[in-house]
């Protein structure tokens, strides 16, 4: 976030880490990975099992539509599950799960394979075919990961929609993916309450006519409405006399889609980014193994919901490909008390914790006495992701949770990148608040709008100058938009534009400042101003709306909404509250504006574009800058 004013402050890795780390020499490996990028990625790809080796590591004949490991045959589930059950790992824990009410389940790799095979056989029996897109809308329960793996096993792509999204957001994503099958649960637990997911799905399906089959996992047991010709309970299907639950893993092309994940962009509707079996598998496995230094002894906990990319890459695929033991938790971090996480770290002996700055800041507020009640001494590595971590939160995380001995891997990446791009290794000297250096194979640039490289210390656009295997291949159904959004500004140079501003200091350390587009990161979640504004405008009293993100102590950013009402409607605190509720209902609770104001007019350019920058500067009491294009 903000660079410390004092001379550079390094936290040096302990001797123990230096000696024990999987990968000790960053500089030499980095150099080699740049000089022979394809050679480097071929070596990383060799950590995975291929049904047939690739012909070409990188096919860049149709830029920016890069292809990796073309000609190769693989399935990510063969790597994440099947190959482990043939070794001693069949008895190793794959998944440790705790529900919010305190129930828990564990799965060995053997058990995980059994459940994935059963779920996959059920999907097949319901007619799911290779290449179709299955939408998954579930709480953080093991069945969510199992459902993802089951789809991938039989060659269907999954589209996981975060369980906190509303019926409208879910419905439009199902419709865009043209899913025929939706997988869900009756509900989940959050802060002691049951969230009625099946009720939300039923609403969503009214706007998603392609859906023929909805399969529901029984989690909470509360009453739900099931329609006889569409709805099935998973446990019923699993108890049907299917001839056999054995299920072959489909042989896929390296470039076949593994999943679609919707994410918010600058304008318009969320875009469905497409990731693949081959490159994505290689990339998530490589980054996690090297950055989190996975060892057999580790118990690794990623607190992200699988509904976001962090959960896909570093709760499900990355850890399982590496044969790790991964922990998953269903509920809120402070339920029933603010020691919930620390208690679980002690109980399960977690050694690596990967979480977000928002969670750290939120738990920091309750004070050190909560973690102090627990023995956190098994922890050896910490991670952070989703937004810049402010040095104060970094230091607290390092000292109080990490006992001063655990390095913090502040990983910068995006839904589009598939995995870490700027990140330390455990052996990297750290500066609190900096994501440090590029991962292998990456050339990161800080450039101006024309593409001129900026000197150290100067803020500019973050670009990636070379392709990498984990990159999203396209936007579902809209390759032109993919080209336009990420590749058009620096088309001449062939660089990927991340949409973040950042600077690089004299030591070559990167400092991420934030988004340069109309994306707002709230509690690490990515929301588009366009989505929130259209939710507001769908209210009968609203004529026009503009939203901006304002710095917030815990959530990183909070949403402020400016609303122009229709003629004869008058703003009031009651209406403001009603609009906040309206957004929550139509988009999801994470998108709730903190505050709604009713100005007379919105600042616009002569061409009619709302100048959100001006609204933001006014709210923050800053100079509004150049307003020469402002009409009123
Ligand atoms: C945006 C991508 C990557 C998984 C979760 C977010 C911001 C992400 C960091 C970090 C500063 C970060 C960027 C980026 N971001 N990690 N370590 N430091 N900012 O994925 O939802 O696609 O959001 O999150 O602004 O562009 P996402």
Keywords:
632 residues; alpha/beta; globular; binds 5'-O-[(S)-butoxy(hydroxy)phosphoryl]adenosine
Give a brief description.
With 632 residues, the chain is of the alpha/beta class. The chain is built from 19 helices and 30 strands. 5'-O-[(S)-butoxy(hydroxy)phosphoryl]adenosine binds next to helix 11, strand 20, strand 24 and strand 25.
Q: Can you characterise this structure?
A:
There is one protein chain. The protein is α/β, with parallel strands linked by helices. Helices cover 30% and strands 23% of the residues. The chain contains 19 helices and 30 strands. The strands form eight sheets. An eight-stranded mixed β-sheet has the order 12-11-8-6-7-14-15-23, sandwiched between helices. Helix 2 crosses helix 3, helix 5 (109-125) crosses helix 6 and helix 13 (357-364) packs across helix 15 (391-401). The longest helix has 17 residues, at 109-125. The mean pLDDT is 95. 5'-O-[(S)-butoxy(hydroxy)phosphoryl]adenosine is lined by residues 263, 309-310, 385-388, 410-415, 435, 498-500, 512, 515, 521, 526. 5'-O-[(S)-butoxy(hydroxy)phosphoryl]adenosine binds next to helix 11, strand 20, strand 24 and strand 25.
